[in-house]
Design brief:
Strand order of the largest sheet: 4-3-2-1-5-9-8-7-6
CATH superfamily: Class II aldolase/adducin N-terminal domain
CATH class: Alpha Beta
Bound molecules: the ligand CSCCC(=O)C(=O)COP(=O)(O)O, zinc ion
Structural class: alpha+beta
Largest sheet: 9 strands, mixed
Number of strands: 9
Number of domains: 1
CATH architecture: 3-Layer(aba) Sandwich
CATH topology: L-fuculose-1-phosphate Aldolase
Amino acid sequence: MPSFDQAALEAAADAIAAAGRWLAQRDWTPATSSNFSARLDDAHAAITVSGRDKGALGRGDIMVVDFDGLAVGTDRKSSAETLLHTHLYRRDPGIGCVLHTHSRVQTIASRLYAADGHVRLEGYELLKALAGNATHEMAVDLPVFPNTQHMPDLVTQVDAWLDTGVPAWGYLIDGHGLYAWGRDVGETLRHIEAFEFLLDCELQLRRLRT
Ligand SMILES: CSCCC(=O)C(=O)COP(=O)(O)O
Ligand SMILES: [Zn+2]
């Protein structure tokens, strides 16, 4: 029998649905793209069902998986990218939410910086929106990983990067979009919004300099 708390699932589902509306209003989740999750406990997460309109989620569009990415208590199919969420919950108990979006800015930046392997974000006051940062006098290298339909390959690459111990709030996937995380839904939305703003600045600066 599933052992997660039903009230926690309903609260997580409502928070995920609200986040989806907020992100979709900004056009960051086109054409059923994107996926969202929130930790329920030390073995389960609530996550979006695959293929749903992420700007119009209801409780029936959110299900439970364990940290192996297996569905719990339902025959619905979880996000195609479930493993990119669950490996983060497994490796860091401080992570309470993972959000993935597909904005134009994120997608274009991922294409332009794929060859470098990262986007360097440096000298911006808005870097302080990333949890734990107290100054603009630092650089964050947002990695760009190659896209693949084989999630275990991506998990291996993300794990190798996180194993270096570098402070980390998210990453880009080439031609695909952004993953970001935080201790709860609110903090993760702030990280997504901060990365969107910082990437937009980098793209605009690049245009102005050519
Ligand atoms: C239509 S976008 C292609 C899949 C994707 O990248 C995505 O974010 C949504 O997949 P899901 O299975 O989570 O709906
Ligand atoms: Zn995606």
